Backbone:
């Protein structure tokens, strides 16, 4: 399920090459625009114009997943976002 740009990005995350039909590529594209909100919106628009591309909702959901997977490396935003993991995490320690 991995496309060529994704494979290359594993070796070199700065390929700047994205397959807009691939959810992972779209995520990388969106992430690469940080911290510019304007750039991010432009990227979302470009993706939305591509027939067959993942929806913004899918991308946002995937990014949220990746972010929670990364743990608390980054300083938490003052939004008080607490993700309920009950029933959603089979690897939950006791
Ligand atoms: Zn990809």
Residues:
């Amino acid at each position: 399920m991995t496309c060529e740009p994704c494979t290359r990005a594993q070796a070199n995350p700065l390929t700047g090459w994205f397959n807009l039909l691939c959810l992972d590529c779209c995520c990388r594209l969106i992430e690469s625009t940080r911290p510019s909100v304007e750039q991010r919106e432009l990227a979302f628009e470009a993706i939305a114009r591509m027939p067959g591309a993942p929806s913004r909702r899918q991308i946002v959901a995937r990014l949220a997943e990746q972010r929670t997977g990364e743990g608390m490396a980054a300083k938490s935003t003052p939004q008080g976002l607490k993700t309920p993991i009950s029933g959603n995490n089979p690897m939950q320690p006791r």
About this structure: Residues 3, 5-6, 19, 22, 24-25 surround zinc ion (CB under 6 Å).
